[in-house]
Amino acid sequence: MPLTTSHAQRTGGGHHHYPVGQIVRREPPEPKVLDAAAPDPFEPAKETVVPPQNPRVIIEGLRLPEGPIWMEDGTILVVEVEGGTLSRCYPDGCVEVIAELGGGPNGAAMGPDGRVYICNNGGFQWDTLPSGLRLPVGLGDYSGGSIQAVNLKTGAFETLYSDCDGIKLNSPNDLVFDSDGGFWFTDWGKPLAHSRAYGGLYYAKADGNYIKRVEYPMGSPNGVAISPDGKTLYVSETHERRVLSGRISAPGEIESLRLFACPAGNYEFDSMKVEVDGSIVVGTLDRAGLTRFTDDGQFAEFTPTEDKLTTNLTFAGEDRRVCIATLSLRGQLLAMDWPRPGMKPLFAI
Asked: For residue 107, what pLDDT is reported?
């Protein structure tokens, strides 16, 4: 309703009022003087590109490899997401299928009992590009994700978890064991026909008797790693193009997840591993390579691989100074000399 002077007086409550129609001039605030030396928060960080040292393709013909594990006998275990298998790669280039797991095995880690633990995303429908490359494009015969455990000697496997508190797992993606023998794993969520199921962070025991939802909902949690001192958990989020970190207060407990790194640019982060000095190295999609951050979240360097599905990596050799990356689009394992040693997994054999 129109404001009259009498109305303003009745509702004033002791505040100062200006007569109707009076133009009130206010002096503008003093402009802030910006420090010319201060970094522009909207300007992409200057990146240091370090070419791969002595790169060599050691395995070819894999069906979207992921979850590499270097074994002390010189072989490398990988899961093949499209192939639905856990396979062993030999130095001579031969590949042996250990177990046909079905679905879409996506991440792998050695457990305290000598079995290989698998994050299975439940599978996709696949399409072939004109170049012959295969890409996941839909749900296919997807019915839910799971955590599996494989006996390396026999190939026998069992499903440990397919739900948490009665709610199905969507798309388990990657996992890492702690010193207590339990493991953290990510559920990436799942693109559905007209929507997307959320992802989350979980903790479980290797005996199949305990699973806990730690952080939910999350956008697209992917890689997961633990700092050398066992006190910090790292989680990458692919579509959000960032890495989070949280202080581990007890097995399966974190104080909170906070932003660790989020560089400007087309960095879609996948799985990660940790160096001895605490730096983390993250497989980077789209940008096509490996991104390294120091233990305080500073961008350190980027190593290009020329594969837009550079999904994961492992450190190999007696001194762990060889990096083996999974070039999932090309179906290759790429080895390169690495200037710093990587962490040895807790239950490596």
From this structure: 97
By CB neighbour count within 10 A (0-12 exposed, 13-18 middle, 19+ buried), where does 71 fall? middle
Average pLDDT value for residue range 271-280: 98
Which has more pLDDT, 153 or 47?
Answer: 153
DSSP string spanning 163-194?
EETTEE---EEEEEE-TTSEEEEEE--EE-SS
Res. 19 pLDDT band, cuts 50 70 90: low
DSSP 8-state secondary structure symbol assigned to residue 275: B
CA separation (Å) from 346 to 25, 137, 227?
Answer: 70, 35, 12
Query: The whole model's pTM is what?
Result: 0.85
How far apart are alpha carbons 291 and 299 in whole angstroms? 8
φ, ψ dihedrals at 102, nearest 5°: 75, 175
Number of neighbouring beta carbons within 10 Å of residue 76: 23
Q: How far apart are CA 320 and CA 138, in angstroms?
A: 37
